[in-house]
Amino acid sequence: MFKLNVIKVLFVSTEAVPFAKTGGLGDVIGSLPRELLKKGVEAKVLLPLYKTIKESCGDRLRFLKELKVTLAWRACYCGIFELEYDGLTFWFIDNEQYFYRDGLYGYMDDGERFAFFSKAALDILPVLGYRPDIIHCSEWQSAMIPVYMKTLYGKKSFYQKIKSVFTIHNIEYQGLFGWDVLEDILGLSEDDSPVLEYHGCLNLMKGAIITCDRLTTVSPTYAEEIKHAFFGHGLENIIKENEEKLSGILNGIDRVRYNPSRDKALPVHYSCGTMEKKAMVKKELQTELGLSVSESTPLIGMVGRLASHKGIDLVAAVFEDMLKEPLQFVLLGTGERRYEEFFRRMADLYPDRVAAITGFSETLASNIYAGADLFLMPSLSEPCGLSQMIALRYGTIPIVRETGGLKDSVTPFEPSTGKGNGITFGSINAHDMLFAVRRGQVLFHDPVSWKLLMKNAFLTNLSWAASTVKYVKLYQDLLR
Fold first, then answer.
1. Beta strand spans in 350-417 (E)
2. What pTM was computed for the model?
């Protein structure tokens, strides 16, 4: 029987918990490689050495090497640093011109910054004497790695046996640039332009899709959805042309980090066996937020970005209809000003029933996941979603639209069979969402069904265990 040696995988990312995070990418890269180590995969992670990392971890960083990275006509300094964290090796690319800044993204030269990062990721390998079997990269910021592997590095013997996996966490953000970037920044020639050209501009994600050896997304349903125009954001035809190498693998969560029996942010710890203590967290949350303290009033929570694709318009359209029911609502998040102002206005109108905190706090987020009875996620699209998984881990019942990872992780509860872990609705319709909320309220007031539903939520295992098996198989198949 054909037997593979230990698989060496280098994850190249612009985010990884606990060093850098703006969204779900940071959570995934902070946990997936560590879980793969448990499966015998030799995983390492490569990140930019951002200002925040340098300032918080400077005394723990170990300098390895330095080199010059050629980016078109530029010769750029590149320092390589190492840090061991929780059994996992992290490497960091240092260049203060590009990365010693406040925040991770949003600069006019982001294209140049991450083209340098992608090229440096390849250039450091022979310097370190490290040849991975697979480079696993994510999102447009590292999309140039598979492109470079098939163009500038395609004939270099060191790189010819290295395979690439590219994961789309959100296809909406594609890395679009003008033609001047091709030679002046990316260092490619006109002969290479067909790889990146799409709809009159350079599209880095498109380049990665067609040049990577395997393509993945963060849930099976999303892998199917992005073949269609509503979800594909212009790349649906490219996805369909490359679907033979596409697979969807559902993200997991770190069940040690998210654990109501240990979470230090909670005033009271509880588990499936002591779920009655969850009501004590709810009471503390209501008190802290100035809501009426009532165990018998269902409390709906929302945590996340306030953006249109998160379904916030659906919530706003029927919010006051929702409040005709005896329930409470708490929101934690930031985003578009119009949404922030709407929820602040609702909190002013209904101070004992609505709380709106436009900011972010890990402590408050944990208390909402634990203290709420229901968790609302009416997303128009959701590649995977982690909030519904965290809510389930804390015994809080998600109300979700059937899309992407929400559909793959939440199944509708049927009182007649006792099966299911949440409440779902299908169409992008505010009143369908409202009816789902009302179903949740009815279940809340049915003690037998509610206890069973909470138990199902607690027992839902959305750890990385099943997903890592799928990643290992994908890697094995690729190397065969």
1. 354-357, 374-377, 397-401
2. 0.94
